[in-house]
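pipeline stage [seq->struct] | target=Polyprenyl synthetase family protein | organism=Natrinema soli | residues=280
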Amino acid sequence: MERLERRRALIEERLVEVIGDVEPDALRDEVRHAALAGGKRVRPLVSVLACETVGGTEEDAVDFGVGIELVHTASLVVDDIIDRSELRRGTTSTWAEFGHGPAIITSDGLLGEAFALFSADPDATRVVADAMVELGVGEATELSAEPANEDEYMTLARRKTGALFRAAAELGAIAADSDPVTVDALGEYAERVGVAFQIRDDVLDAVADPEALGKPTGHDAALERPSVVQVTKLTPEEANDRARREADRAIDALDRVEVADPDAREYLLELAEFVVDRER
């Protein structure tokens, strides 16, 4: 656990450094508000752990990890505008704090800083661009055409959540100069972890106690968002089984990877278990 916290601290330190160079001052304040309001930094940790698993170092992957966190944060800024959510991670959302126009510019600024970090490697840029296309399709689908069955829901979850998880792991593998087969295996691992994460998130929003969860529940139903328990015939227990199946397949994908650092791989295995078993 101490080693994991050291990685998280490295990511946080680099994130603060990148944001500190943003200009002008007003944009820096808005980007700082959006990006440093908290968060588990799961995606950048996946980048770093994937890199170490196949022989790279923390330092090799930290910039890519920070970049994918900035992309994720940019998507959350837009989500909050769409949902009219006034809170994010326990503090005022960006649009509620600064207004709609500055929030949109903040999202643009976050993406600009992210791609500056990816720009030195064409493969990294391509991976993130592909993920953003998937994310955009997913967001548009959610607004215009609610999924009608389990297969359509799973496709949406893969695009909305799995795509950025996949990119995070693939970036880590690229940072370690991995071959395409390894990049793809780590990407599949992370994509399935992301889908499992989304399914469990939907279940918790539907059935968890708000105090235990640490945030209000019923968000998906109130906003008529396509949750696994809203658009499929699955019970919460059956949905959890689907999440477990995705986590198991994630572990199967990880088994195809030639491991250089067993400790880093163990953290990836624990993440696959955590996203299914978490209570908040």
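stage status: PASS
auto-comment: The domain at 2-277 is CATH 1.10.600.10 (Farnesyl Diphosphate Synthase). Residues 180-207 form the longest helix (28 residues).
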